[in-house]
């Protein structure tokens, strides 16, 4: 690729990232006037990307809000603790590095060979809530992206027996904070390209020595394969999470199946029980932000 073409592609990517993050923020009313947003920075590509795009949006947003980058140094062996302070100082952004040796606590309490993640993340969560309180943060922003959300949906279906994803916005479990995920619409592949372009000083995430979550990895591979084979499928799946039809699922707490009565009134939304159902893909937004009408209607055969 010529340098001109690369610069053009990167500009397009930047526009797309800003557009998608902005869209998620508006759709879920994630950031409001006067908010102080604590951006959790791990040193991975996603959280660097989150902070970077939020800073761009902050400069042009119609509302005023503050950003504070926060990193928790868990004292994992070999953690390069100079990288984030240097990077954040250069950015000129307000930041806080919280140093807490949770690594030793986890090592002491979890037998060798057992997974350390659940205790580690519980400790991390508690510390981050405390820091958010001390900093007077009104929102906590996390760097989960579209593919994380879809992976979670599949993991819950496959292993948890639940139709449950990862919310774009939720109240923290202690009830005190609004947690937001502004990258909810952003595909991971865009964050990978953006991290390369911006040359973020990535800190490896394997320092704790914990095993990778195999199931999440497998589901991630499945989604990546689908994305290659069937472009638009992951986008449709995200769309599906925003278009839930309780009457066509089986959760009796969401729809009154047991007391359902006929109405005698024709309705377009009623079930055409004997017809083949046609599934029309929703209109998509292409890389330039233009709406693309669906080209395929998929009949679902009823036997
Ligand atoms: S991978 Fe390591 S740092 Fe991350 S939650 Fe698990 S134990 Fe903690």
Automatic annotation (TrEMBL):
<dbReference type="InterPro" id="IPR012089">
    <property type="entry name" value="tRNA_Cyd_32_2_STrfase"/>
</dbReference>
<keyword id="KW-0067">ATP-binding</keyword>
<keyword id="KW-0004">4Fe-4S</keyword>
<dbReference type="Pfam" id="PF01171">
    <property type="entry name" value="ATP_bind_3"/>
</dbReference>
<feature type="binding site">
    <location>
        <position position="208"/>
    </location>
    <ligand>
        <name>[4Fe-4S] cluster</name>
    </ligand>
</feature>
<dbReference type="GO" id="GO:0016740">
    <property type="term" value="F:transferase activity"/>
</dbReference>
<comment type="similarity">
    <text>Belongs to the TtcA family.</text>
</comment>
<feature type="short sequence motif" description="PP-loop motif">
    <location>
        <begin position="42"/>
        <end position="47"/>
    </location>
</feature>
<comment type="subunit">
    <text>Homodimer.</text>
</comment>
<feature type="binding site">
    <location>
        <position position="117"/>
    </location>
    <ligand>
        <name>[4Fe-4S] cluster</name>
    </ligand>
</feature>
<dbReference type="InterPro" id="IPR011063">
    <property type="entry name" value="TilS/TtcA_N"/>
</dbReference>
<protein>
    <recommendedName>
        <fullName>tRNA-cytidine(32) 2-sulfurtransferase</fullName>
        <ecNumber>2.8.1.-</ecNumber>
    </recommendedName>
</protein>
<keyword id="KW-0820">tRNA-binding</keyword>
<keyword id="KW-0819">tRNA processing</keyword>
<keyword id="KW-0411">Iron-sulfur</keyword>
<keyword id="KW-0479">Metal-binding</keyword>
<feature type="binding site">
    <location>
        <position position="120"/>
    </location>
    <ligand>
        <name>[4Fe-4S] cluster</name>
    </ligand>
</feature>
<feature type="domain" description="tRNA(Ile)-lysidine/2-thiocytidine synthase N-terminal">
    <location>
        <begin position="37"/>
        <end position="200"/>
    </location>
</feature>
<keyword id="KW-0808">Transferase</keyword>
<comment type="pathway">
    <text>tRNA modification.</text>
</comment>
<keyword id="KW-0460">Magnesium</keyword>
<keyword id="KW-0547">Nucleotide-binding</keyword>
<dbReference type="InterPro" id="IPR014729">
    <property type="entry name" value="Rossmann-like_a/b/a_fold"/>
</dbReference>
<keyword id="KW-0694">RNA-binding</keyword>
<keyword id="KW-0408">Iron</keyword>
<keyword id="KW-0963">Cytoplasm</keyword>
<dbReference type="InterPro" id="IPR035107">
    <property type="entry name" value="tRNA_thiolation_TtcA_Ctu1"/>
</dbReference>
<comment type="function">
    <text>Catalyzes the ATP-dependent 2-thiolation of cytidine in position 32 of tRNA, to form 2-thiocytidine (s(2)C32). The sulfur atoms are provided by the cysteine/cysteine desulfurase (IscS) system.</text>
</comment>
């Amino acid at each position: 690729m010529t340098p001109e073409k690369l610069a053009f592609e990167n500009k397009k990517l930047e526009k797309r990232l800003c557009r998608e993050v902005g869209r998620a923020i508006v759709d879920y009313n994630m950031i409001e006037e006067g908010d102080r947003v604590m951006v959790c920075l791990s040193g991975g590509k996603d959280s660097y990307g989150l902070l970077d795009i939020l800073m761009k949006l902050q400069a042009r947003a119609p509302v005023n809000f503050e950003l504070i980058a926060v990193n928790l140094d868990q004292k994992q062996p070999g953690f390069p603790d100079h990288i984030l302070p240097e990077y954040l100082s250069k950015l000129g952004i307000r930041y806080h590095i919280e140093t807490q040796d949770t690594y030793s606590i986890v090592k002491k309490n979890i037998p060798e060979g057992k997974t350390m993640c659940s205790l580690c993340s519980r400790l991390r969560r508690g510390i981050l809530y405390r820091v958010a309180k001390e900093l007077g943060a009104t929102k906590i922003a996390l760097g989960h992206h579209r593919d994380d959300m879809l992976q979670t949906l599949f993991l819950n279906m496959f292993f948890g027996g639940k139709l449950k994803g990862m919310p774009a916005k939720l109240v923290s479990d202690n009830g005190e904070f609004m947690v937001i995920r502004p990258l909810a619409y952003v595909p991971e592949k865009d964050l990978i390209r953006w991290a390369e372009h911006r040359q973020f000083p990535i800190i490896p995430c394997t320092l704790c020595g914990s095993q990778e979550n195999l199931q999440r990895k497998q589901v991630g591979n499945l989604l990546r394969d689908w994305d290659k084979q069937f472009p638009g499928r992951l986008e449709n799946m995200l769309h599906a999470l925003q278009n839930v039809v309780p009457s066509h699922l089986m959760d009796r707490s969401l729809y009154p199946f047991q007391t359902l009565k006929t109405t005698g009134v024709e309705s377009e939304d009623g079930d055409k029980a004997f017809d083949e159902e046609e599934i029309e893909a929703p209109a998509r937004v292409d890389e330039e932000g233009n709406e693309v009408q669906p080209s395929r209607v998929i009949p679902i055969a009823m036997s």
